[in-house]
Amino acid sequence: MSEWTISKKNKFPKLNKPVLIEGLPGIGNVGKVAVDFIIEELRAVKLCEFFSYKLPHSVFVNEDSLVELPSISLYYKKMKKNDVLFLVGDVQPIDEESTYTFSEKVLDIFQEFRGSEIITLGGIGLPSVPKKPKIYCTGNSPDIIKKYAFDGVDSKLYGVVGPIIGVSGLLLGLAKRRSIKAAALLAETYGHPMYLGIKGAREIVRVLNTKLSLGINLKELDSEIKDIEEEVSRKSGISTSRKKSLRRLGRMGKDVSYIG
Question: To which H or E segment does residue 203 belong?
Fold first, then answer.
């Protein structure tokens, strides 16, 4: 069998020069939280799921105490201008080779849809919690960097981070080989493995909302951030309200402990 099996959940639609936004787990799970929030706000439709024996050898226990295999999914949303594809999931491929083969498979699908550009999301780990996370932009061409380096987004990333590891990085490099423009938006976040970078995710959502005209109201996200911060400050454990917020912000209640 092929290393990556695609299970279609809906008929593939005809899309208008879609932009692909990747938000798989990483530092602070910034990208995952951002994309999960956008998917829910826009009521994006699931297109397909990716399965492979190259996914982590584990299962998650859900709220009904039943197990679920880890998954990576592709969603879409039709917009007034460019339509949008969202790549999101519980995990990333487990090794270098599978990360390459997965990224190539995603690019194959992207080109089938005649996509226009790719945006990957991630976090920059800091030794302490940033009060207002800064957003950096890099990419595989000067034009795409210039497009997204606006309104406080810093394009001077050299020397700030080392290699961009995983799907978020490889999609940029492999896209260049296919002459596809691709950018990465990276948000500062606390580099602790148990920290959820919601504020960084919020800043990324703000940038995407403005640049892609997504029409998202950020007030609800701000309210959920406030709820979670209040629970943390009280140090009273994870309450029902916090669990609800965590479920909304990417179903992180089930997988926040996975990413190291």
Answer: helix 198-212
